[in-house]
Amino acid sequence: MASSKKKGLKSSGPKDSNLDTNDEDKTELCPGFRDVDAFVKHGFGAVLSATKASAGLPQAGDEYDFYRSFPGFQEFCESQGDKLLHCMSQIMQHHGCRSHMRDRNKLTGLEERFDLVVDSNDVILERVGILLDEADGVNRSQQPVMPAGFQPPKVVVSSWNRKGSSPSSRSETFRLLHAKNITRPQLKFKEKVDNSNTPFIPKIFIKPNAVKPLPSYFTNKQMRKERPEDLDVPAALADFIHQQRTQEHVDDMFAHPYQYELDHLTIPENLLSKPEPQVIHSLAETKLSFVDTLEDLVALNEKLCKLSEFAVDLEHHSYRSFLGLTCLMQISTREEDFIIDTLELRSEMYILNEAFTDPSIVKVFHGADSDIEWLQRDFGLYVVNLFDTHQASRALNLARHSLDHLLKHFCNVDSDKRYQLADWRVRPLPDEMVQYARTDTHYLLYIYDCVRVQLLDFNHGQPGLLQSVWNKSSSISLKKYVKPIYTEESYLELQRKQKKSFNTQQLTAFRLLFAWRDKLARQEDESTGYVLPTHMMIKISEELPREPQGIIACCNPVPPLVRQYNNELHLLVQQAREMPLLKVRKDEWQQGGMFWGFFLPSWYYKFNEVEIKDDQESSSAAQMKARRIIESFENPFRMESSNAGGKKRERVDSEVGDLTPKPSKKLMKSAEKPQKTEVTPQDSFKPFDYSQSDLKVFAGNTSKDNTQFDPNRQKTPKGQKNNTGAGNRSMSYLPGKSDRGFRHNWPKR
Asked: Which of 12, 405, 469, 666 is the most buried (most CB within 10 A)?
């Protein structure tokens, strides 16, 4: 039995070897090549032989042109070229690249072929790199491991108006709805928009849910309307005049009407406890009501007063209005959604103050900083007991704090932002815009429940973090709307933001254009960006066009009001060009810190701030020093012009307190010589007559031999005069009697 087993083992040996050879034959990489190394070795040999063969071809130039003249060589080159192009086309088709290599266009064919080859090489080499990485164990397509809660930022590319980045979903273009010929809603307002350059005064005249009564200034609204002396004055200015006449306190005019209520607001315990998130219904299952009449608005206010919370959002338009317009208000409850046409009900929106200021009702906003100001400006509405989900998102340290991210994070809803830049003045509203506006508040109450739960869990059940969100939301409710006020220095703030440096003419043009734009925008009730965009205003200020057509050339596209007031703008530019180029206003170059292209030292401004009085007796020594230093920093061109006019710069006499050394007696004696009388400046310039000048001053005088040793003095033989100059004399002698140009003219001790 054992021997038979051994025979069986021995007999099975050749069979196994035959199987191994068959397996090796079957596992060939490709016909004729066992593995990759054999294929690469053969490929390198083929490439090397092709390179050697190409080196033996005729070189470009006279040699190639000579061979090209033979028909046989020409036919051979064309046939081989077609074969190469066909082979390259097949390779490019295999990799999914464009393969129109056999283009016969003589003008652009060669360039197009070269571009195709370059693009194909990039694609093929990229795929080779990916395959090599995968062979090494590196997978480029694998998503990186990210911590929980981290969301990669959205990259905005040139196709910003495309929706749907996944390969399965088809890209869709955003629609920017804008009606060019829309009727201006400001014309229908019962109370005209106040664009005057005066502070904003609250519109409130009834204060529901008041703990502290409204000041009497706001209560008697009818009396303010019936004042005949203020009919020709803007409303805000008339209020200010009335306040001055009646001696009412100015703090009551500009104070927050509900500041006392917000300061003493206490959050109930049930709002600081952990809630149970209520499931929100879908948009299709929720009723939608459009409110555009006074009766519907009153009915809505009654419904809201019976609730414990509701969500609010606004849609705003600012391009065709100086202050801006609130075009739409969305309100959502647990069971119903409402859309209010605030353009139609602008004068009646104050009715909602009864629900908005009720401290027992929670008003849920997202990013309410601007909404609070818009409600005050347009409707006189105020919010008490506000909860801002944006502040809650910041407290939770979420990846992003936008409403888009919260909808995706808590509700798994992808918000449609195609109509974010739409013109909300359009009436009637398209269905797409209605659905977009409705989505902003429909899920907000569910998000309100979820963030409260997470805030308590994040703080281990303690209400401290949730209480901080309530406090921040309450501080947002205390914000007051501030009207943009134009001052003479307003343009400097814009210049600093733009980080532009102008010369005096350019700065004057920028100041005049800024004032013109602000005035016209208030007058026409248009935004400053519509009247003259900032980048166009800077372009005009830098170029300073000499002709009206140059102003048009600086604007692309040309704003309608710029084309209408082109001549007026040209006059402003001409006025700026007439300014002296080097005349800098004191306050301007102090603020800019630049003076004729170089920076003055910091101590110069300290001395310049010293107030110097005309009476020198009352001025201190430090002030007089500062005055002399300031006077020394004069415009060099101004100094030159003053000298040309014949004026001489006078020396300021030293003060008693100055530490100036007293002159020596020798200098005093030399200064006692008679001086020439000053020549009065003449109007016409006359050249100096050098024939009348005494040239003996430059001849020098002979001196007796001095017994003191001088290494620079040469020995002279007897009987020969010493012609050396007066090099050993003291430096205290007058300039006319000394040889100061000698190299080693040291003074005596």
From this structure: 469
Q: How far apart are CA 33 and CA 25, in angstroms?
A: 10
| Torsion angle of the four alpha carbons 80, 82, 83, 88, in this order, in degrees rounded to the nearest 10 | 130
Residue 570 CB contacts under 8 Å (≥ 6 apart), including other chains? 545, 547, 548, 551
Residue pair 382/376 in contact (Cβ under 8 Å)? The answer is yes
What is the Cα 527 distance to its own chain's centre?
Answer: 19
Q: pTM to 2 decimals?
A: 0.57
Peptide bond into 717 cis (omega under 30): no
**Alpha carbon distance 711, 742 (integer Å):** 13
Beta-carbon contacts of residue 113 (< 8 Å; ≥ 6 apart)? 101, 103
Number of Cβ atoms within 10 Å of the Cβ of 216: 10
Cβ contacts of residue 576 below 8 Å, gap of 6+? 505, 506, 508, 509, 512, 541, 544
Mean pLDDT of 25-38: 73
Sequence-distant (≥ 6) Cβ neighbours of residue 447 within 8 angstroms: 366, 389, 406, 407, 410, 411
**In the 8-state DSSP scheme, what is residue 406?**
H
Q: CA distances (Å), 660 to each of 653, 654, 657, 731, in order?
A: 11, 8, 9, 20
Q: Give me the pLDDT at residue 748, please.
A: 57
Is the pLDDT confidence value at 338 over 50?
yes
In angstroms, the Cα distances linking 322 to 419, 522, 611 are: 22, 6, 42
Structure tokens at 132: 């090599």
Strand pairing report for 336-341 and 287-291 = parallel
- CA dihedral of 531, 535, 536, 538, whole degrees rounded to 10: 110
The CA distance from 629 to 473, in Å, is 55
8 Å CB contact between 209 and 261:
yes
Rg (CA), the chain: 45
| Portion of the chain with pLDDT greater than 90, in percent | 44
How far lies 659's CA from each of 244, 289, 655, 656, in Å?
58, 88, 9, 8
Cβ–Cβ under 8 Å, residues 145 and 116: no
Alpha carbon 222 to its chain's center: 46
Taking the C-alpha atoms of residue 296 and residue 329, their distance in angstroms, rounded to an integer, is: 14
First-to-last C-alpha distance (Å) of the chain: 135
DSSP three-state, residue 286: coil
Closest CA to 513 of 483, 496, 491, 492: 491
More confident call, 735 vs 434? 434
Average pLDDT of the segment spanning 95-101: 70
The number of beta carbons lying within 10 Å of the beta carbon of residue 375 is 24
Residue 217 token pair: 């200034």
Closest CA to 514 of 542, 538, 549, 548: 538
Q: Based on the number of CB atoms within 10 Å of its own CB, is 692 exposed (0-12), middle (13-18) or buried (19 or more)? A: exposed
Q: Any alpha helices (H) in 443-503, and if so which ranges?
A: 444-458, 464-477, 490-498
Task: For residues 444 and 451, give the distance between their C-alpha atoms in angstroms, rounded to a whole number.
Answer: 10
User: Three-class SS of residue 552?
Assistant: helix
**Of 163, 166, 179, whose CA–CA distance to 416 is shortest?**
163
Preceding omega of 428 cis (within 30 degrees of 0): yes
> DSSP class of residue 10?
H
Burial (CB count <10 Å: 0-12, 13-18, 19+), residue 279: exposed
pLDDT digits (tens, 9 = 90+) for 268-321: 999 999 999 998 889 999 999 999 999 999 999 999 999 999 999 999 999 999
